[in-house]
Amino acid sequence: MRLADIQIIVTRAEPGASETVERLKARGLTASLAPMLSLVELPDSDMPDPSDLSGVVFTSANGVRTYTARRSDRHLPVWCVGPATAQAARNEGFDTVHESAGNAVDLAHFIAARAPSPSLPLLHVANAAAAGTLQEKLKSQGYRTVFAALYEMRPAISLPEQVAKLLDQNARAIILLHSEKGARAFAALTKARELANCTGVAISERASTPLERSNLSAIYTADTPNEDGLFAALEIALATLSA
Questions:
Q1: Same structural domain for residues 60 and 130?
Q2: Structure confidence by residue, pLDDT tens digits, 15-37
Q3: 162 and 56 in one domain?
Q4: At what angle do helices 104-114 and 133-140 cross, to 10 degrees?
Q5: Are 241 and 6 in contact, with CB atoms under 8 Å apart?
């Protein structure tokens, strides 16, 4: 099968979804947007003054975007979960950007290995559903944290017309799954559809879980939970389909 005959469906939320589509097009692939989540800012969320913090922890590029929309300070050191988040922080002009690789647990260990426990707390900026694991891990390492839910991700209520048509035609497609919540939304919207000609490529084991009981032909999972890892898993899926 030719790569041009394989449709790539991008379920990532904007603005990242369009970035993924551009990367796919540069690879010569045909991509369709189907964001399964949309970002809604929470303007009433409280944040401490920068002078009362030792640094900021970002576990997504959306956290960077929503924080910088409300704060002009760029002097606090920031700790980022992966390369995409770190690049977003650099693009916003932060003076000191620390880049981890992996998930929130890996980030907590990364911080503990590189920064002495400060007298002032770290601010964790994320979506409303992200409180918990990172703070617990940092607390066990002697760090205090403050959580600021600056946005939430709301699931889509329908598939884009173009994507619904592709699935109705039983077209050969690869579904890119960027998060567990987005994968749950996609699973809910496609539970009555035939997906046997579709292959899933997930950014993590958690992102693959909601579709494990679907009739997808296969699910490939990234070795590292970031965009580069996802694209590496995509290449394996493409090689298998085009063999």
A1: yes
A2: 889 999 999 999 999 999 999 99
A3: no
A4: 30
A5: yes
Q: Return the H-helix or E-strand segment holding 189.
A: helix 180-190
Q: Are residues 161 and 149 in the same domain?
A: no
Count of domains observed in the chain: 2
- Give the residue among 184, 74, 57, 180 at the shortest CA–CA distance from 110: 57
Closest CA to 198 of 34, 37, 28, 38: 34
Strand ranges in the chain using DSSP code E only, listed in sequence order: 7-10, 30-33, 37-41, 55-58, 78-80, 97-99, 122-127, 145-155, 173-177, 198-202, 218-221
How many CB atoms are located within 10 Å of the residue 61 CB?
Answer: 23
- Integer Cα distance of 233 and 202 in angstroms: 8
CA distance 240 to 150: 41
Tokens standing for residue 121: 């707390």
- Least Cα distance to 8 among 201, 217, 218, 222 occurs for 201
DSSP character for 156? P
- The DSSP string of 111-148 is HHHHS---SSPEEEEEETT--SHHHHHHHHTT--EEEE
Write the pLDDT tens digit of every residue in 56-83: 999 999 999 999 999 999 999 999 998 8
- The structure's pTM equals 0.82
